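Hi again,

Forgot to attach this to my earlier email, sorry! This is the prediction with iron/sulfur cluster bound. I've pasted everything inline since the attachment limit keeps bouncing my files.
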Amino acid sequence: MRDKSDLTKPVNEQNFIPDIDKYCDEWCERCAFTDRCGKYSTHEMDYLETEENDVTSEVFWEKFTETLQTAKNMLSEIIEREGIDLNTPEMDAMMAEQQEHDDIAWEHECSRDARAYTGMVKDWFDAAKELFDDKRDQLVLSAQLELPNVNPVAEVNSIQDAIDVILRYQMQISLKTIMAVRRTIVDKLKAYPDSPRDPEGYAKVALISIDRSVTAWSTLREHFSDREDEILDILISLDRLRKKIEKTFPGARAFVRPGLDEITP
Ligand code: SF4
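Structure tokens for the complex follow:
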């Protein structure tokens, strides 16, 4: 674990990769770059230590409230120092413009399909309780009978991993897709000079999340063959979404994410 004094050093002195967290999938538990990521380091020290990472502990919520209060105070100070008036016609116009961008991004065909996928996952898992109960009973029986050529532990691990991947990326796919679309709209309108390829980075994360979800659903298809038709429908939807994102963001696959696509961990 890093020393807190590391945070006072410039980023390159800490061996952190600049912007590595900008286009990652935010799954730190499975990331091979935690020791090169400044965000992880800060987050680790602020939230991941002992009780501060336990949402059931008072310490966690005290820390959370403290963080929110600090952010609020900082914002108030900036507003006061810069003399920003939040109740001006310009500010209203800016807020309306932001809302308009949000609405357009939300209704884009890629965003719509991504949101529909999020709903499909929820519906499938809502209806799967009995399915999982049956599978658990079947695997327990297999273990008790010590059937040859059957490995219940491996099967449990395989199912659990597939479920973890699907649920992990369920929201990520729509979030990153909407971010990519929204950023495209803003870039087109404002001609952002500093990050012209930003949308492709977000689209790439969405595509990677889709690829991994496809693999995970294919695994579930093998374990739950009687649900094959439902799973196939989901796989077809994911494939359709993948093609739409690739068409909308043709440079996404080739986008090089800082660190993640440059270094072999
Ligand atoms: S780069 Fe890795 S460690 Fe850093 S925020 Fe992303 S997933 Fe977490």
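The chain has two domains: 24-82, 89-248. Residues 24-82 form one domain.

That should be everything now.

G.
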